[in-house]
C-alpha cells in the first residue's frame, strides 16, 4: 500500500541549521518538495529563544553565517537581534520562508518499513492535530532543551529573598540598575552577561567553581582591514577572503592546541595575564584545570569582559557554594557574597531532536547509545539525518557539510531508484567498536547527557567529525555506501 506523501523531505527546526539545509535542498535537489516545521513563532532558534542582555554569537559570523549569503557587517561577533534579522532576510531572499510552518510542534515520528515513509504527528497552533508524511526526515533542532535549562543543585537557592533569574528565561522587566549581581557559572553566557549587566548594575561578580579560557576578539582585526583595503574594488572577493581567513585561523589555532596542549596553555595564560588588572590574580580565577578547547573557549568582543574587570564594576570569585541564605551566598572558603540578584548561568540541558518520540514500525527508537554514521545518520534509523555542527569551530560549517552530504545522497537515491537508506553496523563492528563522544567536550552539561546522546565510533564510517576541510571533501567525494544499506523500490 502506497502512502500519500505531503512532502518529499520534512525538516524540523527553522534555526541556522534548518534554513541552511532548506537552501541546499533548493539548490541541489530542486525536484524535491519540502517543508520546515518550526514549533515556535519565528525563525531563529537559539537567537529567538534567548533574550538576556548582550546575547551575541560565540563564534565569528563570517563562518557562522551562511556560505551562500555573506555576512557583510564589519564585525565578526554580532548581537542576537542582528543574527535573527540576517537569518530572516536570508530566508526571504531565497523564498525559504514560504516553506516554513510556524507553531508546528512535532510530537512523534514513525517510519514504516512497508511504505518507506515517515509519518509525523504534529500539534499546530497549540491544539490542532495534524499528520504529515514524507520520504525523508531531517532533525535540524539543535542539541539542547528549549523548555528546561540544566538543573544544578545550589543549596538553599529557594531561600533567597532577592531575584533569581536564568538566562534561558530572562525576565524582560527585570531592573538591575544599581543592583549587586552574582552570576553563577563560567561559560560563554556568564562571560557575555557580566560586562553588559555592569553597564547599569552597581557591581557584577562571576561566581565560578572552576575557570574558563577567555580570549578577546577584535571586532575587526588588522588582517580584515588589509583585505578590505586591497579588495575595495571587488566585494565578492572581499567576502570570500575574509570568510576563508575565519575558516583557516581557528582551524590552525585548534590544531595547535590539540597537538601542543602545554604550549597552547602557556600562550593562553600569557594573553590573559596581559589583560587582567593588578588587583585580580590569574591563579585561581583564570587558571583552568583543562587544556584549551577541551571545553569551549569563551570569546569577548574587543575585550569587553576584561574592560569591566579593569573598571572595578566586574569581578570574579572562585569557590564552592556552601549554601544560599535569604540575603547571601556563603562559600566553603568562609567568604560571603551579598547580592540583590542571582543569575544561574549553569548551562544547557541537552536533548536530541527536540524531544520527538521516534519509532520504526511503531517500535520506540532510543537515540541514546546509537552510533552516528559519518556524524550525520543514526544507526538503524532509515531515511533520516541528524544535523550537528562543531564545538571548536562555527556550528554552521558542520551543519553545511551535513546538508551537502545528505543532498548528494538524496540525488543518488533518485538516480538509482532507492527508497530506503539505513546505516548498519556489521557484526564485527558491533562486537569490537570502541565508543567515543560525539561532542568532544569535558563540560559538565555534556557529561550529564552521555546516556541520551548518540555516540561515535573509533573507526570506519562511525568516527566523530574532525574538521571542516575533511568533512566537506567527504560530502563532495567520499564513500556514501559503506556502512549503509540501500534498498531499491519494487
TrEMBL record:
GO molecular function terms noted in the UniProt entry: flavin adenine dinucleotide binding; N,N-dimethylaniline monooxygenase activity; NADP binding
UniProt KW Secreted keyword: no
Cofactor(s), by name: FAD
Signal peptide interval: none
UniProtKB keywords: FAD, Flavoprotein, Monooxygenase, NADP, Oxidoreductase
Taxonomic superkingdom: Eukaryota
Pfam families: FMO-like (PF00743), NAD_binding_8 (PF13450)
Keyword Oxidoreductase: yes
Name used for this protein in its record: Monooxygenase
Gene source species: Recurvomyces mirabilis
Amino acid at each position: 500500500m502506497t502512502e500519500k506523501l505531503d512532502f518529499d523531505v520534512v525538516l524540523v527546526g527553522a534555526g541556522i541549521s534548518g534554513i541552511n539545509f532548506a537552501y541546499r535542498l533548493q539548490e541541489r535537489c530542486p525536484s524535491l518538495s519540502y517543508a520546515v516545521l518550526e514549533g515556535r513563532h519565528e525563525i531563529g532558534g537559539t537567537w529567538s529563544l534567548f533574550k538576556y542582555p548582550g546575547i551575541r554569537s560565540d563564534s565569528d559570523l563570517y563562518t557562522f553565517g551562511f556560505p551562500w549569503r555573506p555576512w557583510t557587517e564589519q564585525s565578526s561577533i554580532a548581537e542576537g537581534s542582528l543574527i535573527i534579522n540576517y537569518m530572516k532576510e536570508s530566508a526571504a531572499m531565497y523564498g525559504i520562508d514560504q516553506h516554513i510552518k510556524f507553531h508546528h510542534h512535532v510530537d512523534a515520528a514513525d517510519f514504516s518499513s512497508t511504505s518507506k515513509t515517515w509519518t509525523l504527528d504534529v500539534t499546530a497552533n497549540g491544539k490542532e492535530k495534524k499528520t504529515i508524511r514524507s520520504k525523508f526526515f531531517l532533525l535540524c533542532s539543535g542539541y539542547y532543551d528549549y523548555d528546561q535549562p540544566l538543573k544544578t543543585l545550589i543549596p538553599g537557592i529557594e531561600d533567597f529573598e532577592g531575584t533569581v533569574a536564568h538566562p534561558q528565561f530572562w525576565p524582560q522587566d527585570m531592573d538591575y540598575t544599581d543592583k549587586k549581581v552574582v552570576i553563577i557559572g563560567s561559560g560563554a553566557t556568564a562571560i557575555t552577561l557580566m560586562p553588559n549587566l555592569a553597564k547599569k548594575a552597581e557591581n557584577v561578580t562571576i561566581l565560578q567553581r572552576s575557570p574558563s579560557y577567555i580570549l578577546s576578539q577584535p571586532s575587526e582585526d588588522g588582517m580584515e582591514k588589509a583585505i578590505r583595503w586591497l579588495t575595495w574594488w571587488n566585494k565578492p572577493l572581499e567576502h570570500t577572503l575574509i570568510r576563508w581567513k575565519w575558516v583557516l585561523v581557528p582551524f590552525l589555532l585548534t590544531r595547535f592546541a590539540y597537538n601542543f596542549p602545554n604550549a597552547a596553555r602557556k600562550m593562553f595564560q600569557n594573553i590573559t595575564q596581559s589583560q587582567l588588572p593588578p588587583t585580580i590574580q590569574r591563579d585561581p580565577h583564570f587558571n583552568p584545570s583543562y587544556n584549551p578547547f577541551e571545553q569551549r573557549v569563551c570569546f569577548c568582543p574587543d575585550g569587553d569582559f576584561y574592560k569591566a574587570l579593569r573598571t572595578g564594576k566586574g569581578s570574579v570569585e572562585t569557590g564552592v557554594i556552601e549554601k544560599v541564605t535569604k540575603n547571601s551566598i556563603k562559600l566553603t572558603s568562609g567568604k560571603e557574597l551579598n547580592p540583590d540578584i542571582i543569575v544561574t548561568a549553569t548551562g544547557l540541558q541537552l536533548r536530541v531532536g527536540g524531544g520527538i518520540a521516534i519509532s520504526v514500525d511503531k517500535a520506540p527508537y532510543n537515540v541514546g547509545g546509537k552510533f552516528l554514521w559519518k556524524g550525520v545518520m543514526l544507526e538503524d534509523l532509515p531515511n533520516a539525518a541528524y544535523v550537528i555542527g562543531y564545538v571548536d569551530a562555527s556550528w554552521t560549517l558542520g551543519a553545511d557539510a551535513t546538508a551537502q552530504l545528505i543532498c548528494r545522497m538524496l540525488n543518488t537515491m533518485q538516480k538509482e531508484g532507492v527508497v530506503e537508506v539505513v546505516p548498519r553496523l556489521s557484526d564485527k563492528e558491533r562486537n569490537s567498536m570502541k565508543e567515543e563522544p560525539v561532542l568532544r567536550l569535558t563540560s559538565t552539561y555534556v557529561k550529564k547527557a552521555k546516556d541520551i546522546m548518540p555516540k561515535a565510533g573509533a573507526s570506519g564510517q562511525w568516527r566523530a567529525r574532525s574538521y571542516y576541510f575533511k568533512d566537506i571533501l567527504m560530502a563532495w567525494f567520499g564513500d556514501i555506501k559503506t556502512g549503509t544499506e540501500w534498498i531499491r523500490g519494487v
